[in-house]
Fold:
Amino acid sequence: MRRRVFRIRSSVVEESVIVCAKDALRESACRGRAMVFTDSNVYALYRDTIERYFPGAPVHVMPAGEEHKTQDTLFALLGAMAAAELHRGDTLVCVGGGVTGDVGGLAAALYMRGIAFVQVPTTLLAQVDSSVGGKTAIDLNGVKNLVGAFRQPRRVLVDGRFLDTLPAREIRCGLGEIVKHGALCAPLFDTLWEGRDRLFDRTFLRTVVPANIAFKADVVRRDPDEKGLRKCLNLGHTTAHAFELCDAKLSHGEYVLVGMLFEGELARLHAPDCDHAFLERLRTLIVRVLGGVPQLPPAAEAAAFARLDKKNRSGDRIALTAPVKQGGYALLELDYGAYLRELTQIEARLREEIC
Ligand SMILES: NC(=O)c1ccc[n+]([C@@H]2O[C@H](COP(=O)([O-])OP(=O)(O)OC[C@H]3O[C@@H](n4cnc5c(N)ncnc54)[C@H](O)[C@@H]3O)[C@@H](O)[C@H]2O)c1
Structure:
């Protein structure tokens, strides 16, 4: 059996162990009794698997979708945990994408002031990103992830077979984070560049998932509280969030790709030590994943949303984490007027050059 185990060691994440294995679900990860939390889509597809690996465990199913990442779903789960008489020594097993992991992780943080939980991520995004790092949350009053807590899972069990049932759009969404990690991690970028004709091939993706987890786990281990280094994971996110808040027609991962595309071009104008050949290759990868430049709202409309970004010191100075060279990024701060003007020019140029 091929098996990769990453141990994350730090005072904050000392207990988490990520197992990537063909038979990851066989790992005996649970302390005490297990209760399974999943969503309706995953349960429809994997009910037998869940029953086989967690026999007799109570199962609580939330309706699938980001719109259900709410207090109602959280409290329904907490109620089910109480009804199942879960105790301090028991374990909540979250089987699903980032939504299930975020809601389940928060419930585990709250129930009896904290019980163990295990992540079994079933989307590409959850496997390479959301299940690692210990961030948990629900949305409130229309604001994403407004209420949450840091709580590290006891185990993250990653099984690549879940990718077989994932629609192409969800694969593309996960690829947004994979390309982001690649821009920040030089060896991973080489792998993605070499495999650029197979980016949607599940077999290829299964080979890059462990390197993505190792990269994110290393960043989190070095900066668990997001005081410095972890901010690199915001690459492209200022512009990604601006477009996402403006029209919300694409997935988050697709907006991350769009954000990196635009911020790579902004870096060419503002970062002195840009590697233009790398930015060209990054642009090629992004456009391949997106299949062109997607339909977006006018950049001028989106730019206004960047003024609200948490990273800005004021609404007139737009803070960006932009790609500049392979394995490197730059923290830029642009005058809002320049950001607005340049974003509009970049959009026109990209459409001319790429479409
Ligand atoms: N905690 C973090 O650090 C972190 C990081 C990034 C994103 N997130 C959060 O993650 C969420 C997005 O995660 P997501 O993209 O996984 O969304 P998701 O959990 O909604 O899953 C996407 C869709 O895929 C379905 N699905 C899941 N596994 C499947 C499978 N194996 N086969 C077929 N369908 C499957 C789900 O039912 C859902 O319809 C957002 O709420 C975001 O805020 C959290």
About this structure: Residues 39, 41-42, 45, 64-66, 69, 96-100, 102, 122-123, 125-126, 129-130, 133, 135, 144-145, 162, 165-166, 170, 173 surround nicotinamide-adenine-dinucleotide (CB under 6 Å). Confidence is low (pLDDT under 50) at residues 8-15.
